[in-house]
Amino acid sequence: MSPILSIENLDKTYPDGFQALRNINLAIHKGEIFALLGPNGAGKTTLISIICGIVNATGGRVTVDGYDIQRDYRQTRSRIGLVPQELTRDAFETVWDKVSFSRMLFGKPRDDAYLEKVLRDLSLWEKRNSQLRMLSGGMKRRLLIAKALAHEPSVLFLDEPTAGVDVELRQGMWETVEYLRQSGVTVILTTHYIEEAEEMADRIGVINQGEIVLVEDKKQLMRKLGTKQLVLQLRESLEAIPAALADYDLGLSEDGSALIYTYETQSARTGIDDLMQALGEAGIRFTDLHTTQSSLEDIFLDLVNGS
């Protein structure tokens, strides 16, 4: 199956010589949730702006549903919805007028039934006649999505959808994104919240210094790059790791009450059995043990710092 969004050898260099994007290659599949992660200045906004027709690329090619974003501008733009971070204008306009105008901008025929469905699905129908200035922060966020969906796009970009919102609202946004996926919309989100990508995304893309560092299925990424730590709570504290255990690359907690053993989850042999035997031979006893696994944030930081 052809990807709904295809990016090939994309470059962007600004007039001052700054190269914001370098040879970006990426394919997004229909109906998936794709999270694009990267530090500030990594190129996320530039990439989205090019795909949405706001910024021109220096080189390369982008297609949406088979249409070229430059040659077939109208067809591609009508297939894309963009949800920015903030709603900044028209405080006295009503919710209904806002979404109706957004639909009209793309030359779509009037369809009040469709707009009603969008507003109902986003829990905004009861506020359809309210002015934007009267909406809560959560309602304004949902209105941004309603505006982007008004012209029935097949690809939706969410730029930092939960930046600066509380935990409860963030959870509500996650539920909204999942609903969009179930309705057939392909969702691409940029986020600084690692847990957001870990919660929602099917695949993770990491961009740094204008280059794609990695694209991977989230679960496979966690398995391939994740590590686990075995923490052993000691019966008697140690001042140092015994020489007999030097081969196991153990760590010792600051207070000496726990030994920490790190191992790769994909390794054929974890070495835990040998470690347990060596602990017994060294006369070290423990009262409890537990494991922890590296998070997506740990993996992301390793990728960015190492690229």
Question: Can you offer a commentary on this structure?
Answer:
With 307 residues, the chain is an alpha/beta fold. It folds into 2 domains: 5-222, P-loop containing nucleotide triphosphate hydrolases (Rossmann fold, 3-Layer(aba) Sandwich); 227-306, Alpha-Beta Plaits. Helices cover 33% and strands 27% of the residues. The protein contains 10 helices and 14 strands. It has helices at 44-51, 73-78, 95-105, 112-121, 137-149, 167-182, 194-200, 218-225, 272-281, 296-306; strands spanning 5-13, 19-28, 33-37, 59-64, 67-68, 80-83, 155-159, 186-190, 203-208, 211-217, 227-234, 251-252, 258-264, 286-293. A 6-stranded mixed β-sheet has the order 6-7-8-3-9-10, sandwiched between helices. The chain has a 4-stranded antiparallel β-sheet with strand order 2-1-4-5. The two termini are 32 Å apart. The model has no long low-confidence stretch (mean pLDDT 85).
Sheet with the most strands: spatial strand order: 6-7-8-3-9-10
- Cα-to-Cα separation, first versus last residue: 32 Å
SSE series = EEEHEEHEHHHEHEHEEHEEEHEH
- Contiguous low-pLDDT stretches (5 residues minimum) are none
Q: What summary fits the major beta sheet?
A: 6 strands, mixed
What is the highest CATH level, the class of the largest domain?
Answer: Alpha Beta
CATH architecture of the largest domain: 3-Layer(aba) Sandwich
Percentage of residues in DSSP E strands: 25-35%
The CATH homologous superfamily of the largest domain is called P-loop containing nucleotide triphosphate hydrolases
Oligomer: single chain
Radius of gyration: 25 Å
Q: How would the global form be characterised?
A: elongated
CATH topology of the largest domain: Rossmann fold
Structural class category: alpha/beta
Helices, by number, come to 10
Query: How many distinct domains?
Result: 2
Mean pLDDT: 85
Helix content: 25-40%
The beta-strand count equals 14
Organism: Halovibrio salipaludis
Domain ABC transporter: 5-234
Protein name: Multidrug ABC transporter ATP-binding protein
GO molecular function, one term: ATP binding
